Amino acid sequence: MKRILVGLVLTVTLFYLLYLSEPASAGKKRTFEEDIKQDWAQKVCSNPEAKVPEELLDRFLEEQRKLIKYPESGNIYGDWKRGEKLFSNPKKGNCYACHCGDPKELACGNIGPNLRGYGKKKKDPEYTYRKIYNSWAYVPCSVMYRAGVHGRLTPEEIADIVAYLHSEESPINK
Amino acid sequence: MSIKYFLLFMLTSGILAFSFAGDRLDPAEEVKKQKKLLLEMMGILPGDVIVEEGKEIFHKEGPNGKSCASCHGKDGKGEKLPLVGAYATMPKYYKDIDMVADLDLRVKSCMEKYTGYDPEELKGKKGRKIIVPLATYVASLSNGMKFNVQPRHPKEKEMYKKGEELWYARVGKMDFSCAMCHDKYGGYRIRLQTLAEPKKSKVMRYWPAYRYSKDKMWTMEDRIRGCYKQIRVTKPPFYHWAHVALQMYMAVNSNGGVVEVPGFVR
Amino acid sequence: MMNRREVLKLAGTGVLLSTLSPFVNLSFSSEVEEKFKKHVGVPMSKVKDGSDKIKLKTPTIAETGANVPVSVDAKIPVEDVDWLMIFVDHNPVPRVIKVHFSPMNGKTFFATRIKMAKTSNVRAIIKKKDGSYLQALKEVKVTIGGCG
Amino acid sequence: MAIGTARVRVPKKIKKGKPFKVQFIIIHPMEPGTRKDKKTGKLIPAHHITKLDIKFNGKLVTHMDVGGAVSANPYFAIMMKTDESGTLEISYEDNKGGKWKKSVEIKVS
Fold first, then answer.
1. Is A26 an interface residue toward C (CB < 8 Å)?
2. Among B242, C73, D73, D99, which is least packed by CB within 10 angstroms?
């Protein structure tokens, strides 16, 4: 009896995971028109100055803060080695596209600040987590993409990157 | 697109490969030398060969016995409908198709309408093999002339407006717009590549361009599709209105720039 | 003078290194050496440094590996040259091209554009007619491009 | 562009007996045969130039054994010298049996 139950639970989880991994539109090709539809915040930011009008600022920040979610474990400080891979991988975080950090990485951009020694600045890891999850909750309309909001990085993956930025062991801080 | 995979492979392996004990080069400066060296070495750029190919296509008869040259004259220098200088005024409203067309779309529509090409032949990647060289050749006929695009027709004005909107629109999973990378952060670097400043450099004047990282001639439509892919937005199909709109916006911002086609870019 | 402990430590490291090295360090370079011997015809040790005579021009950092310009200008009379080879250590096929000159060339010069799979040494190897070999070597770092 | 098309450039003025640069490019995909197709995961078959001869008035000036790692639309440059005017002929073939020739006249003064 117990075994059947476990089996049932496993099957359900499996199907649930399958369901999660395939968005409703799977099979159908996405179109340009669908992809350029904007959310409210993107619309607000679509001006030459890339600024939120004064009167909308409070609503904007509040909405963006609300979008931030945490890992189920509650742990926002993951594994720095995994974080390093995510940070570097052009198909994942690709953070080096805009930031420098590990001096070994020559091919790093200068759009964002240099993150060398970031961990020594004694910033709150939770701030780091939240900033990566949704940069717009801190800098409205920033060029930094909202990694968590769009699901480009999972909460767990962001936690790993937080560790990469804060850990003493990480080449960012060594 | 095998070359893309090849690139990906070597780029990912490249990341592991750095060890630079001691030498203090500025990577951003060093990287510019590759282009300089390529230009120095080359008596001939591959782009010039592609222009020649376009010239051949231009003078070759289509299925109904007419060539581009039948209407536009030899080398596009006919008394009626000359093409010299035409590219410097595009995108433009064309009465015969009742549309505003960019270079690619105009070339394609002409071939279908007047030289009898089967539209199927001009579709997709297969068609690009004809349209890209031909478009490059046609654009090169305006070399030395100044860009001058003034939206007057209502449809041209509408395209300009749509183009401007698209330019500033923050879209997709990376929240980018053209403007973020190419106005606000133009001149900064993504990895080691300096972001182009299409408005400042009057970009339309040197496109179509030969891309040495891909060993291919690209028209602005290819470039726009590449940009959208990079910001993880589904690429607009070729000859889509978005290409025309964005080029209308960039063309107006390229006014005064002297045409020099094909360009030579990374 | 070393004390006993230091000597032991050194010895220990030596043992550790010698057990590990066949798997870690040497495997890679010996692979290159093997390929070198196969394509060039002689072991790497037989090829002398000719960087004073062979001017090899490449970018030090390549922003794309698809198109790396390489030029070789050698101060060796072309009458004395049998062939020139461009060899890229870490390419799937390291031998990129082999150029056989003749006195009609007038100068030992060659230029081309090559593909590089990843960061690697680029070598210009010249076999002279007297049977000796010379080479010039440059490292070209192939970097990750733009937006991934 | 048609595979195998070539374009050659030599200086306008060439002096008798003085080395001058011969540059040319050939339109060719130069598929090395070591790359995998993104979709199928299978190796893309090699398709590249393998041999190239540069002859002047029938005499061999330079011979090249060309590998797949030469860039697409390959570019080559060599030097040569001659005391007489004549025809420079570049002939090349690929691993799929393609064979091409391209000639240019050279006038020395």
1. no
2. D99
